[in-house]
Amino acid sequence: MYFTKMHGIGNDYIYLDCVRNPEPANPAELSRIISDRHFGVGSDGLILICKSNRADARMRMFNADGSESEMCGNGLRCVAKYVYDHGIARKPTLAIETGRGVLTVKLEIHNDRVTRATVNMGEPILNASAIPTKLPGDPPVNQLLMIEGHTFLLTCISMGNPHAVAYVDDSWFGQPDPDPVVRFGPLIEHHPVFPRRTNVHFVKVHSPTEVTMRTWERGSGITLACGTGACAVCVAGVLSERTGRKLLAHLPGGDLELHWSEQDQCVYKTGPATEVFTGEWPG
Prior knowledge:
Layout: E1 2-8, E2 11-17, H1 27-34, E3 45-50, E4 57-63, E5 68-69, H2 73-85, E6 93-98, E7 101-110, E8 113-120, E9 143-147, E10 150-158, E11 162-167, H3 180-189, E12 199-207, E13 210-217, E14 221-223, H4 227-239, E15 246-251, E16 254-260, E17 267-272, E18 274-280
Parallel strand pairs: 2-3, 4-6, 11-12, 13-15
Antiparallel strand pairs: 1-2, 1-18, 3-4, 4-5, 6-7, 7-8, 8-17, 9-10, 10-11, 12-13, 13-14, 15-16, 16-17
């Protein structure tokens, strides 16, 4: 079985071309095995690039723990790069089917290869029951959650998958020991107020147009980047009146440009997509 390793600002996945090859019999189990950074290839999960009756390709995404997720923004850019670079559809604007629906990806092409892409991530989902969360508000903005004596004010959004955004100080960045993201990330992810668990983002505001963020990703733990999470941070900043509709987000793996449009209420995300290597997995 041939695979391609790709990443969007360090958010890395193993990609399988299931347009030209059959889908694996058990992608959830394969994701757990192949994602292991000591005994496998090493990744944040597995993404299948499949045929679609509605779009140029369909994306299925599995976390490193084998759970299937609705969306991955960084992974979507890489899917679009693969679709173009490997000749599945040679168009400057692609339509990719996801668990969130069909999303449009505008490609930046240099020397006949995709280097960056802008994704229309659609409108944020702001209804608490659809996110889903049991926190009050539609959407929940600055809602208090107490965990082990620590108070978090969470703003919750779905970008097709659930996100909780907390604004924090400098102590959450650099190389803190012990790391509060490792301590509190899983506690928030699995808290009963999130019936389908949640991605968690800890954000420091530099200005109305710039933030730094760290992510605890549902099903994968600490990741270098989360594209849907960056979109959620952009929306959360507007809702909580901390930042504006155009935002530069610094993530451990690199930067993303976000824009929550007033015209169509969709969130647009721009960032790079990189192919690392190809290989063959036994079985």
